[in-house]
Design a protein that fits this description.
The chain has about 300 residues and is α+β, with helices and mostly antiparallel strands. The chain contains 10 helices and 8 strands.
Length: about 300
């Protein structure tokens, strides 16, 4: 779409907004818009989008979590649930524990309202991304520490990667409410998805490794923790040597699998780390056309 530039007075230049976009996003005369410039791009956002809400009428209790998680990730501020049954009401209350920033602000037999009261500002994203990397590394270290005892390893798997997913979903929500370009948002979401896949693979590895001998499980998680540590270093230093070492860890895990019959989960964790590690390096390469990830 192209728009003509009009000179209003002096050095003031004006560009009209598409009427369909204004109607869809609630832009009216006298309203205010958020404008961000990034190189040759000028991004316009409507603040009204941030107060968007949805209403669910008698939702299926088995699907309510998926509705709420999707609304959360999309940056929606308020969800109104009409005529919830008892099972749906319990799912909604549980959701407030799993979705940071949302609180149940109203509850009655006919209506429940979830509302955003404390989503962090977008300038806090770098700290939260770094926190997610630390959580992933800590999860791998915990599994390594527990690998000498099959019972402890199973318990570690049950504790799972929930803290990591809480942070990654919060970051996804912040991105959808931000004024970043679509490419920047896509790069960040790819990074977050890679961290989630890594956590899932470490969890699956812990569940199956409890069936291996103690020495095999220890060797397996020693290498997994090493890869997680290398990724943490790569994230904060952008040193490409760490990526090569992560890939070497994956090869070592494939060798361990051939000898012990371990699942592919550990090697897959390294594969995910290598993929998002490469994404970090490409997005921060000198003269790269890719939009950088926060660090």
């Amino acid at each position: 779409m192209q728009r003509s530039v009009i000179q209003l007075a002096g050095r003031t230049l004006v560009v009209s907004l598409p009427s369909a976009w204004c109607k869809e996003n609630g832009v009216k005369k006298g309203g205010k818009l958020e404008l961000t410039t990034q190189g040759t791009a000028c991004i316009i956002n409507s603040p009204e989008l941030r107060s968007a809400g949805i209403e669910l009428d008698q939702p299926d209790s088995s699907a309510i979590w998926y509705y709420l998680q999707s609304a959360y990730d999309l940056g929606i501020d308020e969800v109104r649930i009409v005529n919830p049954n008892k099972n749906a009401a319990k799912q909604i209350r549980d959701a407030t524990m799993a979705l940071p920033g949302w609180e149940l602000v109203k509850q009655s037999e006919k209506r429940m309202i979830l509302r955003d009261i404390s989503t962090p500002r977008i300038d806090e994203l770098p700290e939260l991304l770094g926190r997610s990397v630390h959580i992933m590394h800590d999860f791998a270290k915990s599994c390594h520490d527990a690998s000498q005892n099959p019972h402890d390893l199973r318990e570690c798997a049950e504790r799972s990667d929930e803290p990591l997913n809480r942070i990654t979903h919060l970051c996804s929500r912040m991105l959808m409410r931000s004024t970043m370009t679509s490419r920047q948002i896509a790069n960040h979401l790819t990074f977050l998805a890679g961290l989630e896949h890594t956590g899932d693979s470490i969890r699956d590895c812990a569940r199956t490794a409890s069936k291996l001998s103690v020495s095999s499980a220890r060797d397996l998680f020693k290498t997994v923790e090493r890869a997680a540590e290398l990724f943490s270093r790569l994230y904060f230093s952008r040193n490409p040597e760490h990526l090569a070492k992560i890939i070497a860890c994956r090869q070592s895990l494939l060798t361990i699998r051939e000898k012990t019959g371990a699942s592919l989960a550990a090697a897959n964790a390294c594969k995910h780390l290598a993929e998002i590690g490469a994404l970090l390096l490409v997005s921060h390469a000198p003269n790269s056309d890719a939009n950088s990830l926060h660090s």
